[in-house]
Amino acid sequence: MRSLISGLRRRKPDVTAEAVAIRRDPAPTKWNYRYQRLMLTPAFRASVRIGLPAFLLVFIAGAWFSNEANRAALNDKVSELREAVQNRPEFMVTDLAVTGADVALAAAIQSRLDVEFPISSFDLELPELRNTITELTAVQDAIVRVKPGGTLEIVVTERQPVAVWRHTDGLRLIDAEGVMTGMIPSRADRPDLPLIAGDGAKDGIAEALMLFAAASPVRERIRGLVRMGERRWDLVLDNGQRIMLPTEAPITALERVIALDQAQEMLSRDVAIVDMRNGDRPTLRLNPMAAAILRPTGAGGER
Amino acid sequence: MRDLYDSQRAMRHMRRAAMQRGVVAILDVGSSKIACLVLRFDGPERFRESDSVGSMAGQSSFRVIGAATTRSRGVRFGEVDAMQETERAIRTAVQAAQKMANVRVDHVIACLSGARPRSYGLDGAVNVEGTVVTDSDIGRVLAACEVPDFGVDREVLHAQPVNFALDHRSGLSDPRGQIGNELTTDLHLLTVDATILQNLLFCIKRCDLELAGLASSAYVSGISSLVEDEQELGSACIDMGGGSTGISVFIRKHMIYADSVRMGGDHVTSDISMGLQVPMATAERIKTFYGGVVATGMDDREMIEIGGDTGDWHHDRRTVSRAELIGIMRPRVEEILEEVRMRLDAAGFEYLPSQQIVLTGGASQIPGLDAMASKILGQQVRLGRPLRVQGLPQAATGPAFSGAVGLCLFAAHPQDEWWDFDVPTERHPARSFKRAVKWFKDNW
Question: How far is it, in rounded angstroms, from Cα B401 to Cα B385?
Fold first, then answer.
């Protein structure tokens, strides 16, 4: 009988379910209601969703960083990582290639560079290297670059000496800008270059080169140019002949002397000095012998 | 009267604040269900080119973004019976609606159906200051209305000017700017029981909600279920709720009378419960599934299992014919409608040019009710459903929600009431000071 009744009861679930559903109280508690309302407040919701995580993040990070050991560990880690990346074989520079320089200059450059290979390309300060190289007087310009394959390439433009400058301490080579490029022990080492001498000869190198060009007809006889009083030039020929050129327009004066020489072979005569300092009054000074020959003729006639 | 004016004005300010915030809740506290709608106001209404509609009475300016209904507990006859229970029910509805809208609401506009409403027709007359009628004249004429002594325990719910007359011309809807000498007005005053109102307000306050408006449920269901020409020509809206039946009479788009009968669908249910010896829940279910008021021969043969849970086989297997059920329901429905007829007769409804009667509310869904109502109330009876508003869920479009929908319309566009006009402050201090100066001038 009992089972029959319970079976009958089960056959009408709708009524009982409804009754149960009605008995349930769906009302939220006061605090639940308030909490829901609070969570629906836009400002509060934003602060919970963004403000609170941000604050937590900053707080935890701050707490972690406030510890000295943690900061040191982080720094170590970062530098270790950086080292690991920089020391990868792709970034290593293993050898040096100097082009455009002779053997002595290349050796000088290598000794000055002070770089120990292999080295990471991150550790190479290319502008500084370039400065170091261009400080050498023999170097006019240099290009420093790291080529793929780990080669440090230095392309050097050397200074070309155009003249030999006899100075107090010896013979120096200078280029067209008047910069010394090197020294030579004797004049015979560079017989192809003209010789200049005297104080301030270096500063007038451009004028000196033009004078040498103008004097090319007597090239075989030229010994050198001497700067006199740091303002004008004397062209010294072999057997002590000297052409004294003026301060202004020395080339014109030299060309006049050359023309006289070509017309009357003036310089092959026994002349000691051709004084062109005053253009209006060129003067010749004879050697004592020639002067002696000339003098009795004039004097003897009078005598 | 002064503090009523101030409190109602404060409520209007609250409504304006809610509008600016853009979200307001609608709370229909009824005897059978508590409905909460959350409205979002998006500022002035916008229309597409293809919309051939006008402003749609302002109902396009808002959208229902949350709706929730809960079984009412602790409310009887539309009045708060158990405060704690009512508060919990309100909380349930508000929380569910908030959850659906995903927005917090702080302002609520509520309506109540019971509390023994009483209508008064007042009139006042005043001389127009200057030549044309201004806002201050209207405020003065409203303040000049003779207020009857309705008792200390009653509170004014609505005070709507329904008619203005300027000299010999009557029937003006808006006399402002017109030239005349004497301005008279007719004011419809609706009072309710103050303690019952206080109880409801207390419940709402306990839910951390601010009240932004208060309306009679009969009035708002009239707004939502009467069409425009019915409101214009004269009609009555019968809102048949669970515990009370609200009556509101409209003419020329103003409510001129409101009342409520303290009977409703719950009484029909309790009759069934008593008649068939079943619990209330079962009786409610039987009423909604098989109920009716007009019996036919077919109904004698249709047997309804009424069930039971006692364990007694004979008791649990009882059946009843549908005709019997109709026989239980019909007298009670008739009684309600007779009572409504009496109230309408007392209000002089038969003198209106059109006597359309619209039945709405949850209890109006009984099949065959319109046929029976036309025998009792008059020939022009129809069943009314609330207006369609944007975003309202399908479940909340039935006649049971005409009060809630009307409250939405009320929230969007409340009718001008007495407290919307600036009543001139008492000028007695200034006047007495002037009199004193005059006295000094005269005597020295």
Answer: 8
